[in-house]
Q: What sequence folds into this?
């Protein structure tokens, strides 16, 4: 089995994004639901056993920016950010999210 981690950074403030609701899915099945801590991480995600396959991490980024006082359009340009990724071999995978109200980026971290 493999392990998975994430780190969400708010590129508007330049700080970790605390309080971002997220969930991990494999197909339609929800494997995990949680929230980022003060450091923008979700340590409980590491406890979810993942193996070879395709997954989706969904981040409720619109809610995060609204809670922080950011004025967003209705509907917001970005509300839920889905990152679909594949695991081809057993190993740890780190999927970070750098987010702003109008854009985001990700990469395979270590």
A:
């Amino acid at each position: 089995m493999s392990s998975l981690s994430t780190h969400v950074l708010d590129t508007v403030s330049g700080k970790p994004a605390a309080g971002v609701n997220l969930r991990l899915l494999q197909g339609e099945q929800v494997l995990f639901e949680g929230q980022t801590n003060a450091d923008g991480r979700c340590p409980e995600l590491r406890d979810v056993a993942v193996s070879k396959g395709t997954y989706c991490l969904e981040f409720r980024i619109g809610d995060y920016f609204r809670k922080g006082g950011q004025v967003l359009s209705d509907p917001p340009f970005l509300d839920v950010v889905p990152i679909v990724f594949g695991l081809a071999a057993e190993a740890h995978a780190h999927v970070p999210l750098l987010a702003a109200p109008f854009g985001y980026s990700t990469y395979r971290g270590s």
Notes: Residues 61-67 form the longest helix (7 residues). The mean pLDDT is 96. Helices lie at 61-67. The chain has one helix and ten strands.
